[in-house]
Design brief:
With 329 residues, the chain is mainly alpha-helical. Helices cover 67% and strands 0% of the residues. The protein is built from 18 helices and no strands. The longest helix has 37 residues. The chain is globular and about 65 Å long. The two termini are 32 Å apart.
């Protein structure tokens, strides 16, 4: 998987046009089967599927309680509102699956591991938007590589509606993309227009959402960040990926791993972006979530960060050790 992450449009486009591999077929089959399984268990008591999907649809109708995303997504959710519930849910989940498959091809990761991960299952179960956001970040990268600025802008606009994943992920990708900033600024045209229109239609949405986050903060059971244990000290994890000489691939993986560990809030489903990167078999670390019925959320909040720290260490410890040895000489 070495150097699979690339800015070369020819390589990316060749991967996108390649035939479906056996592993991808397996991953897509499992992910689609997950949707069927969810509908089978949905009628059982104490099972609450599609919770986030219902929040999105309700927000489009004015009920924004528990809605913590940019308001420019509301027109998309309005479309879902007019679709029959089963059809809307199936389309939404399939978009999440497609987003992960597309992102793995663009970023060069093992897509099938992301598709069969616990994070994928959970995203489909609650009707989350993580897979779509990851797919839009891949659209941003594809647009940057091919200099399709408006398509890159569309990807950035949709992705940044989920701030800690799409906003930060988009910033990382923009900073690492090959084109100079005198060209890359064009990417912001579409997001800027979208943001302005959202403020015209919903003038006070930013203030209202900030107040809502303060009074009804998001549920943090699935947040895997170290912030709950060490607070702002975790932000120091951003220093090595920012300061140590690294390839673009390792720098991005380091930044994404640091974000998962250091931000005040980072849902385990947001790891799907990292899983579409060329991290090899480390993409299996999300499978620790399948132990949730045994050790509960608390166990995940401990287990997954430890595994992420192992990935983080494999990037920086050898590099820092080599630099130290060179400076000794």
């Amino acid at each position: 998987m070495k150097n699979r992450f690339t800015t070369d449009p020819a390589i990316i486009n060749t991967r996108l046009k390649a035939r479906l591999s056996r592993s991808e077929f397996f991953g897509l089959t499992i992910a689609l089967a997950m949707i069927g399984l969810i509908f089978i268990i949905a009628p059982y008591p104490n099972v609450f599927p599609f919770v986030d999907y219902n929040i999105f649809v309700n927000a489009s109708q004015g009920n924004v309680i528990y809605y913590y995303y940019a308001y420019w997504l509301l027109p998309i959710f309005s479309i879902l509102h007019w679709l029959p519930a089963p059809l809307g849910i199936i389309i939404w989940d399939m978009l999440n699956i497609g987003g992960i498959w597309f992102a793995a091809r663009v970023f060069g990761g093992r897509g099938w591991l992301a598709l069969v991960s616990y994070q994928m299952l959970y995203t489909l179960f609650v009707g989350q938007i993580a897979g779509i956001v990851v797919g839009c970040l891949a659209l941003l990268w594809w647009g940057l590589a091919n200099r399709k600025w408006h398509w890159a802008g569309v990807g950035l606009a949709i992705a940044t509606a989920k701030y800690q994943l799409g906003g930060l992920g988009g910033l990382f990708l923009l900073s690492l993309a090959t084109p100079a900033w005198r060209e890359k600024w064009r990417v912001f045209i579409v997001p800027a227009l979208v943001a302005v229109v959202s403020l015209i239609v919903y003038p006070l949405w930013i203030v209202e959402e900030f107040q809502r986050i303060q009074t009804i903060p998001p549920n943090d059971w699935g947040s895997i960040t170290l912030w709950r244990w060490i607070g702002a000290w975790g932000l120091l994890l951003f220093l090595p990926p920012l300061l140590v000489p690294l390839s673009k691939e390792k720098r991005l993986i380091g930044l994404l791993t640091a974000a998962a560990l250091a931000l005040p809030y980072f849902q385990h489903t947001d790891l799907l972006l990292l899983f579409t990167m060329p991290i090899g078999w480390f993409a299996l670390l999300g499978s620790a979530g399948y132990g949730l019925p045994i050790w509960g959320w608390y166990g995940m909040q401990i287990t997954v960060p430890i595994l992420l720290l192992v990935l983080y260490g494999t990037i920086f410890i050898p590099k820092i050790y080599r630099l130290w040895q060179e400076n000794r000489v």
